[in-house]
Fold this protein.
Amino acid sequence: GSQPCYGLTTDTFFPEPENEQRMKMVLGPICNTCGFNIPCLQWALDNNERGIWAGTTEQDRRKIKRKR
């Protein structure tokens, strides 16, 4: 199985700050159907990635880390 995000442009995942929430809303449903969602999120958390990963923003991931 391939990732449903395959073929989307890099700009989609690394939007300008003013477009981040809009892109999160676009990517959320795509990410939620992906079998790689959990490893994708874990990678972003482990590596302090920028951009949108597994339908989460950097701010979302900071909240996740604080709760751990």
Remarks:
- The mean pLDDT is 93.
- The two ends are 30 Å apart (CA to CA).
- The first helix runs from residue 10 to 13.
